[in-house]
Design goal:
203 residues, alpha/beta, globular
Length: 203
């Protein structure tokens, strides 16, 4: 296969506003890839799990879609995007000075060149040990109070300066959010990430 003909299974693409984590509020083009090996019970995009259900798009066409948008930045998410080698995708994006942002569970080898890596580690399927050193941001999903212990174990493994976020699992947010608020007040190195895009009804 020629480099220009490489394809990726694409669940959806859209131009929107980042709703979570450190870059909340910033416009970006979103690329959601199909396929996942982590399979979180609370996942709100379970339709992304099976890559065979989604069309294969050429990366040259993906890059052209990004170039058409006012904000020259892309968030690559999933599913688990690192199930695929993303070197060529990032290389082509960088040729057009497009900023690259990755959302990953860290369970696969890192490929691609990224301006920002958001690691969302899952206790039932932890990241590769080395992945904590790559993270610019760690975003731990909190669905029960005992998940704070997992979050603290992740904090011990990241580099100094890594941004730390606790995010309530959406379906449990009304119950768990007060506990997250109290936890962050007592442990101010942690910040709260809210899925703001769901509150303002955008993708």
């Amino acid at each position: 296969m020629q480099r220009s003909e490489q394809t990726l299974p694409v669940v959806e693409t859209f131009y929107s506003i980042q709703g979570e984590g450190f870059h909340t509020g910033k416009p970006a083009y979103f690329l959601r890839l199909g396929g996942c090996n982590v399979l979180c019970g609370w996942c709100d995009v379970k339709e992304s799990w099976n890559p065979n259900k989604h069309a294969q798009l050429r990366i040259v066409d993906i890059v052209e879609r990004v170039r058409e948008q006012p904000a020259k930045s892309i968030v690559v998410t999933g599913g688990e995007p690192l199930m695929y080698n993303l070197d060529e995708l990032c290389s082509m994006l960088k040729k057009h000075n497009i900023q690259t942002f990755l959302e990953t569970s860290g369970t696969h080898k890192l490929t691609g060149k990224w301006d920002w890596i958001c690691l969302s580690p899952k206790e039932h399927h932890p990241p590769l040990p080395e992945f904590y050193q790559y993270a610019d941001e760690v975003k731990v999903i909190i669905d029960t109070p005992n998940r704070f212990v997992w979050a603290e174990s992740c904090k011990q493994k990241v580099t100094q300066g890594c941004k730390l976020f606790l995010q309530p699992e959406w379906n449990s947010s009304s119950k768990i959010l007060p506990e997250i608020v109290n936890y962050c007040k007592l442990n101010p190195e942690w910040n709260i990430s809210i899925q703001t895009h769901k509150y303002i009804h955008i993708p």
